[in-house]
Write a structure and sequence with these properties.
By secondary structure, the protein is an alpha/beta fold. Helix content is about 40%, strand content about 25%. Helix 2 runs parallel beside helix 6.
């Protein structure tokens, strides 16, 4: 058998494979283009800057499908859809209008936020308590020193006055020196007892230990509503003279819902449900030929492209937010 036709077929398969791989690299750009062509879609890059941003809270977006990854060999416990998609949505919202439309407040992980605030408040309360105790003890010590100084001066005056008198011939209305010093000591004890005790510490006095958390004007809620796997599949194969190829195509669908809720009234102001395709492709080519009596040429080449579900969610979130922003702006809320 001649080798030249085999080499030609081999080169044709390689060339075809290279073209296919180039098409794979442009899949994401094509899908974004399809989203941009959807009716009512407004790219976040096309929105003008906003003077006053909207305070927005993005709450966790749960996966309500309950779908696990498909595996023909054993049951998977891993989820089919990405977990924590609210991170994708927050990144999209930060990009709107060159980061001038929304100011996002943390609500997806409030446990960590509140825990950090409690630590900060506890440290600030301890600091204030130490300052308060030191100030009160310093006040008491200072008042006691002042009383001691005053009593010491009075004692010196008493001793000076009694040194001028005859202890054996005192006037009738003048007590003895010992009685006067005893009265002076009683006076000092009375003054010391009149010192106000330490004022109890209260953490509610003075300035706040931490500023108030920012509250949102609007809330973004949503969920991954549905995930249909292997909704559509097809395949094509051709083999001629032991040279052939095979192509397979599969399409899944994911459905998400987003809604804008007023934080003050709880009224749902706008809602949108978007369904997005998730595409998977596989192509394979092979050659099997006898080069000589005892020699066989066999070659296989192929590729598989599984579109990331994260990318499909990104497109769906962008489409949903495009509709929601247009609706909220048209209604005069934003």
């Amino acid at each position: 058998m001649k080798i030249r036709p085999i080499i030609s077929a081999f080169c044709a398969i390689l060339a075809l494979q290279g073209c296919v791989m180039q098409n794979v690299s442009s899949q994401n750009h094509a899908r974004l283009g399809q989203a941009a062509d959807a009716p009512g879609f407004v790219s976040t890059d096309d929105l003008p800057p906003r003077k006053k941003p909207v305070l927005l809270a993005v709450y966790p977006i749960p996966d309500q499908t309950g779908a696990n990854k498909a595996n023909p060999d054993f049951a998977e416990i891993s989820k089919a859809m990405p977990q924590g998609p609210e991170a994708l949505l927050m990144e999209i919202l930060k990009e709107v209008g060159d980061s001038t439309w929304f100011t996002l407040v943390e609500r997806s992980n409030t446990g960590s936020l509140l825990n950090e605030r409690q630590i900060r408040e506890a440290q600030e309360v301890q600091r204030r308590q130490r300052v308060h105790i030191n100030a009160e003890r310093g006040r008491i010590a200072q008042e006691a020193v002042q009383i001691d100084q005053e009593v010491s001066q009075l004692r010196q005056q008493v001793l000076q006055e009694y040194s001028k008198l005859d202890a054996n011939n005192l006037p009738p209305d003048v007590p003895t020196r010992e009685q006067t010093l005893s009265n002076l000591e009683a006076y000092a004890q009375k003054r010391r007892a009149a010192i106000k005790p330490e004022k109890p510490f209260s953490q509610f006095e003075g300035e706040k230990t931490a500023p108030d958390l920012a509250t949102a004007e609007y809330i973004v809620l949503g969920s991954i509503v549905a995930y249909e796997a292997d909704l559509f599949s097809s395949g094509t194969g051709l083999r001629l003279f032991n040279v052939g190829g095979l192509g397979e195509f599969r399409r899944d669908k994911v459905t998400i819902n987003l809604r804008i809720v007023s934080a003050s009234s709880g009224i749902v102001l706008s809602t949108k449900t978007i369904t997005q395709d998730i595409v998977s492709k596989r192509q394979q080519g092979s050659i099997l030929s006898y080069v000589s009596v005892n020699s066989i040429l066999e070659f296989e080449s192929g590729y598989a492209f599984n579109e990331p579900k994260t990318f499909a969610l990104n497109i769906a979130f962008r489409q949903a937010m495009s509709y929601l922003i247009s609706d909220m702006t048209a209604e005069g809320y934003w």
